[in-house]
Design brief:
The chain is of the alpha+beta class and 298 residues long. Helix content is 48%, strand content 20%.
């Protein structure tokens, strides 16, 4: 096994340009990349993901950390990584062989606009980003990946190249996402309430650093704080404030672990009134002070 050195001095930007040098990649330039060989790719340190990536592990094993959560990727594993996540490859086996479809953020938004209930699927996949496929299931999804790879090659001169590849990517996403139903993530409630819940989660993900109050999100969504809290609790079993605080706490953990910013800087970045208030919040959410959390990770 190759142990990857940890380097938190810099978080590398991971977008499609990072994959340009890979010899065995097939691309729709600036939009979609398919690759199956990471030889020569420097996976040390931390990567700030600026796109979305779907991995199928055909062979070998890898241990990765995503926003402080560790995942073991083995043969037959399907794993999805999302924009804004910080990825750290802890170790990989010498025989690792992933099949990967990576899309830019613009392409991801385009794909989502074509899929009904895409926000709901997006959130469900974040809750359960890994699944295991064996036997015929694994062979079938591998064929789909390979079919996409071939189509990228043979349709590159077709004027509808992107549309063809986009439709195949959507098909693969649906193939991989049947685990969403298996996980029983489907929120129960009216379509209006589901739409409000999904819109709330999207806004919290985008704005939690600047805005910590339920009232802000209620105002943005043109409902009262009480109604928003009631709907979010009904849809997810967690209150609106809990969702906001959990996003902030996760962001704080990632910044403490993967950057060398001091605690004051992190407090400012997360828009706390002072470092003392940030410290109390973090201890309430994690049971540890920011300093203790950082020292434990080191």
């Amino acid at each position: 096994m190759k142990r990857k050195p940890t380097n938190v001095n810099n978080i590398k930007k991971a977008d499609l340009s990072l994959l340009d040098f890979l010899k065995q990649s097939n691309t729709v330039p600036g939009k979609i990349v398919f690759f199956e060989n990471i030889e020569g790719f420097d996976t040390s340190g931390y990567f700030y993901l600026q796109g979305i990536a779907l991995f199928l592990i055909e062979k070998g094993h890898s241990t990765i950390e995503v926003n402080t959560t560790t995942y073991e990727l083995e043969k037959g594993c399907i794993f999805v990584a999302f924009p804004g996540q910080i990825i750290h490859v802890i170790q990989t086996s010498d025989d690792i062989k992933p099949l990967c479809i990576a899309c830019s953020i613009d392409t991801m938004n385009d794909l989502m606009s074509q899929v009904k209930d895409s926000l709901q699927l997006f959130q469900a996949a974040k809750q359960a980003p890994i699944q295991q496929r064996d036997g015929e299931d694994f062979d079938q999804i591998k064929k789909s990946f390979r079919h996409l790879q071939e189509k990228i090659k043979v349709t590159k001169n077709n004027p509808y190249h992107y549309q063809i590849i986009k439709s195949l990517v959507i098909s693969i996403v649906f193939e991989c996402m049947d685990f969403v139903k298996q996980k029983n993530y489907e929120p129960q409630g009216s379509n209006r309430k589901k739409a409000l819940f999904n819109a709330f989660l999207q806004k919290v993900e985008e704005e939690h650093r600047e805005h910590h109050s339920v009232k802000h999100y209620a105002d943005e969504l043109f409902v009262t704080p009480k109604y928003l809290s009631t709907v979010v609790e009904e849809m997810s079993g967690k209150g609106a404030k809990q969702w906001i605080d959990e996003y902030i706490a996760l962001d704080a953990k990632v910044l403490l672990q993967s950057s060398q910013k001091d605690i004051q800087e992190i407090s400012n970045e997360l828009n706390f009134i002072d470092v003392g208030f940030f410290g109390k919040f973090f201890k309430r959410m994690t049971g540890m002070t920011p300093k203790a959390f950082r020292e434990k990770k080191e």
